[in-house]
Amino acid sequence: MKVDVAIVGGGLMGSSTALHLARAGQKVIVVEKNSPGRHASGVNAGGLRRLNRDPAEIPLAVVAAQMWREIESLVGSDCDVQLSGQVRVAENAADLQKLSERAALVRSLGFEHEQLITRERLYQLVPALAPHCVGGLYTAGDGFARPYHALTAFRRQAQSLGVKYHTGFPVTGLERLGSCWRVVTESAKFEAPILVNCAGAWAGQICAYLDEPVPLKVGAPMMMVTERLPHFLDPVVGAASRKLSFKQMQNGTVLIGGAYLAEHDMVKETTEIDLTKLSASSQTVLALFPRMANVRIVRTWAGLEAFMPDRIPVIGSSAKHPSVYHAFGFSAHGFQLSPVVGRIMSELILNQKSSLALEPFSIQRFQSSG
Amino acid sequence: MPKTYQLVVIGAGPGGLCAAITAASLGLDVVVLDEQPSPGGQIYRGISQTPDDRSALLGADYQRGADLVAAFKASGAQYWPQTTVWSLNSRREIGILRQGRASIIQAERVIVASGAMERPVPFLGWTLPGVMNAGAAQILLKTAGVVPAQGTVIAGTGPLPLLVAWQYLRAGVKVKAVLELSPGTNLWRAAPYLPGALVAGDYISRGLKYTLDLNKGGVPIYYGVSRLQARGNDRIEAVEYGWDILGSDRRETIITDSLLVHFGVIPRTNLTKAAGCQHIWDRGQQCWRPQVDRWGNTNVPGIAVIGDNAGIGGARSAEHSGRLAALEAARSWHLISTQQRDRQAHNDLKWLRKDLRVRPFLEALYRLPDSLLVPPDDEILVCRCEEISAGQIRQAVREEHGDPNQVKFYLRCGMGPCQGRQCAPAVAQIVAAENKRPVADYTTFRVRPPIRTLTIAQLANLESSES
Hints:
The structure holds two protein chains of two kinds.
Chain A: E1 5-8, H1 12-23, E2 28-32, H2 40-43, E3 47-48, H3 58-69, H4 71-75, E4 86-90, H5 93-108, E5 115-117, H6 119-125, E6 135-139, E7 143-144, H7 147-160, E8 164-167, E9 171-177, E10 180-185, E11 189-192, E12 194-197, H8 203-209, E13 217-219, E14 221-226, E15 236-239, E16 242-248, E17 254-261, E18 263-265, E19 270-272, H9 275-288, E20 296-302, E21 305-307, E22 314-317, E23 324-328, H10 338-351
Helix pairs in contact in A: 1-7, 1-10, 3-10
Chain B: E1 4-10, H1 14-25, E2 30-33, H2 52-57, H3 60-73, E3 78-80, E4 83-88, E5 93-98, E6 101-112, E7 116-118, E8 131-133, H4 134-144, E9 152-157, H5 159-171, E10 175-180, H6 186-190, H7 194-198, H8 202-216, E11 221-222, E12 225-231, E13 238-243, E14 251-255, E15 259-263, E16 265-267, H9 270-274, E17 279-282, E18 287-290, E19 303-305, H10 314-332, H11 338-356, H12 359-365, H13 370-373, E20 381-383, E21 388-389, H14 390-398, H15 404-411, H16 424-434, E22 454-455, H17 456-460
């Protein structure tokens, strides 16, 4: 089979890109080091959040939110999407000031989705919240989904359109052969005229092969999940001045994140939970949801994720090579963007331009200073 | 910084106690963490509180524990009862729960002696109330004198069903039948190992004694039983089974409101898996176990595993392996030389070598057929916490969720409060069978703390230094 595009990385970004390209009739292969969703794509918190995005990401997140609302038409599964809103809680006047400035900023960019809400509205939305909070910033229509299910849906839809996944092939090198790229692995080589780097925590290694280094740092955000509880919470709850992401899943379990990082080992691909930090995370939970005190924690985990110094991803074409494209470095908030990133990548590859502004995400921002 | 202890022994069964006694005698500062209120482990459970008449009932084996516990109490090792270990990592930080408070202690060296668990074998109806593990039932007998009032059926493989039936017989409980699910052909497979086994024939003579006593007591023992099923609506009402002989499809039914099952024991691997120790598939024992050298050392520096926790060997072997790990610990601090270690280890190593010769016979004799390891019917519930069936797991594998962890991600199988303890082996077996690959190519689920659940408040109040 003659291949048009080779994508390195079978996670959400790679699979979404593969799906969009396949819909446009391209012959695509995905070269995956392990199994799809082994790290960040499979184990992230699953937040569908426009709330509190970096201004550069807002236009993308807004389009992505629309795509999630219609996700079944794209991937043939509802991905367990739950659009019950996301809220950032203000616990005092300073928090409220911070949130109102944020709301003004978003409005000034022409978006209306982040709404300041009163204390009364906050407690209507989150009755279980500790009584001291004073207001919040709320985005109706945000929510969450189940990441591994979403990834599976993207992958299977891509496969049904002819995308071929080669799993268990860690990339060991990249070679230019005439007008083709050769993806070298220990046991096989794959060739295609176009190469896409969606390698997540390993994307920096791919950039190194391309002699286009990036200051990517790997981190492993930790999560914990509780036993099942009767339904008590609809929106995803964060806080203006605390590290917290708190949501009750469809099955009643409560998923708690806080962007605290685990120890990790890139060679063994393992993470080791830091219990002291999770203790801090539990304290945050108790401060905002005292009723959680005697709820049992069933499991904790962490996934390897790529972080950029400015906490926004690299999306766009290579600055060094023709026919090479990047989408990585989502800095622990890429899940929501995955449908739109796939669309953008296919536009870039097929039309050399994107319907959304990508300048802030250019890889050149790490190269110009030299 | 967490408080540091020189040697922490996790578990106070025969292995853990011997390790602690030996290590303390060699001058090591030892702390023993025990989930139970008193030392002895499962085999000698509650031995210091058991009334004399009940311990007589439980047989001479049980008495041996009393001496061991007495020696431990005189050893100078610290003993922390009712202490749950909920985390162990490769840096030997141990998360414990003691008197309702969670804390982290640092060990310079750890000996994991958390023993074995009853092998979980999912079959049709195994989750019905009234179906119970025979070992758990035995604990009720040992600690509380509790027995099934209306009699019971005991089914499974290995020596324990016979022992439990024998103990019940002596306690005056009606045993309606003992169903032996090892295939009849196991006897022929085991026969070649018999000469080696004769040197440690104690096992066999005891098995023979139980069988004779049960026959005398009128308890029927059926061999070659297959396709075990518990039937009932809200709870078990009957046991159904077939025969594995000459393709017969005859089914038998026994009316009972109690079924005790036991399919041997397997090492508890959650702690060692969480700590990053290497595990391997043991073909003889048909289970995963931590990979250790003769001193119990794992691939993680400073973490040793002994006794049944490192591979099933029974209480006596555990004592010897506990001593070996303690000698190695003393050597690592230069309290004894390598030569002294080897000299003092001589008898233990000799005993273990001798005992090893009986194992192939027993393993072959009680070998589980594939139909018990790989749940054959799609309707069989595999993950009881999340209610996932064998059929759902097969379907997930067919949809390219090709290893146990992917199955877990996809189905939530193993994500419930039991942390996958009950379903991990069966899931790995189904995945291997469905992929037509040897089960040794797979490992069970990755394990994350907490190994035992703890509450948000307990974690929030985590003390990382304790006096």
